[in-house]
Predict the structure.
Amino acid sequence: MTQEPVNERATAAASGAAATRRFFADRQGARPGADQERVHLLVSEILKGVHETIRRHKVTYDEYDALKAWIISVGRDGEWPLFLDVFVEHVVEEVANADREGTKGSIEGPYYVPNSPLLPAETALPMRTDEAGTRLLFRGQVANVAGKPLANAHIEMWQADHYGLYSQFAEGIPDWNLRGTIATDEQGRFKISTIRPAPYQIPTDGACGRLIAAAGWHAWRPAHLHLLVSAAGYSSVLTQLFFRGDQHLKDDIASAVKSELILDPVPAQDGSGHEVTYNFVLAPA
Ligand code: DHB
Ligand code: FE
């Protein structure tokens, strides 16, 4: 099969601009007013950390100018959402969900889109007729922490395709491809046909890519499914699921893997790819 290299279809500039638009569309008006004391405290401490690093490592003017040029280029390339979600969000998630009962959370990343098509409990994610990749039957149940199944819970799911590309952020993919909102049945169950996503490389042609190359890091995230599971009266869980055996489980550039979130797929009974069961547990709101 002929396929353009991933990075020519998901440029930093295109996916960064789309992620920036998405962020403002979702969050505008929803942010609480900034508390002056809190701004003072947090910004002072962050700056102190920067100042101490400069003193400790005797940062030169050349290095300062390189930093300045790089920071300007992050904005120019539209890569602030990508940079922050890869290098910072995992700690915000850790703090936010420190006391969460039930299914572990993980980072949202820049590619969530709300209001995906509502689908029944037994369904296929929207996909192209010739969608590439290994078939994956993803099934399970949503229950509360006491074990009671939750009927009509919503599982919002979004994922990269076989080439590591997300619809609405890379060019030329139908809008809702590999995105959907699945409602669980009376027993809280779901059974979703999809494909296994590919490991995902964050765009390498922009500011984040230049940083990663300059530091001698790699740009990979392990393959993952994104999920937002919600039910009336319960606290929603925003998470990701990974695949046992993936090469990048231990060195995810976004530091978002947790051992409880690794799937163990097995060959499907009907011989068509893989199947896996994962059960979600929600705590009361
Ligand atoms: C990024 C992409 C993802 O798919 C993800 O889950 C987290 C971060 C990124 O490119 O920043
Ligand atoms: Fe992702």
About this structure: The longest strand covers residues 135-144. Residues 1-8 have pLDDT under 50 and may be disordered.
